Amino acid sequence: xxxxxxxxxxxxxxxxxxxxxxxxxxxxxxxxxxxxxxxxxxxxxxxxxxxxxxxxxxxxxxxxxxxxxxxxxxxxxxxxxxxxxxxxxxxxxxxxxxxxxxxxxxxxxxxxxxxxxxxxxxxxxxxxxxxxxxxxxxxxxxxxxxxx
Length: 148
Description:
Layout: H1 4-28, E1 32-33, E2 36-37, H2 38-61, H3 68-89, H4 93-117, H5 123-144
Antiparallel strand pairs: 1-2
Keywords: Membrane, Transmembrane, Transmembrane helix
Protein name: DUF3429 domain-containing protein
Pfam family, one: DUF3429
């Protein structure tokens, strides 16, 4: 049975795809928004979302005893968030987007591994995260595909 929080999580996740899709559209049609390119909007939004999702790993560790897995989650979340920040410093947008793509894949892998190791019964959540991550990764690949 789905709870109201899981329905809200799904709705917010789907709404979170809109800026990715819109900035991909802007990039593919060579349009600008607020004097910014679709590529710039995509990269900055991607870095923000990747950093936010990395921070959710911290939330998973707050009320748990310190274990090897919780240390792994904390370190992984920091490395991924720093990678997202570093991607904004790169002057080649395709490198930034490729780094962010690797960040989303890595984050999903880390989170899935942690939930499976804990024998957690979050299959609905993991399925939702997989679907959303897949869509986000496809949009990253579309941004990397030559279209100028």
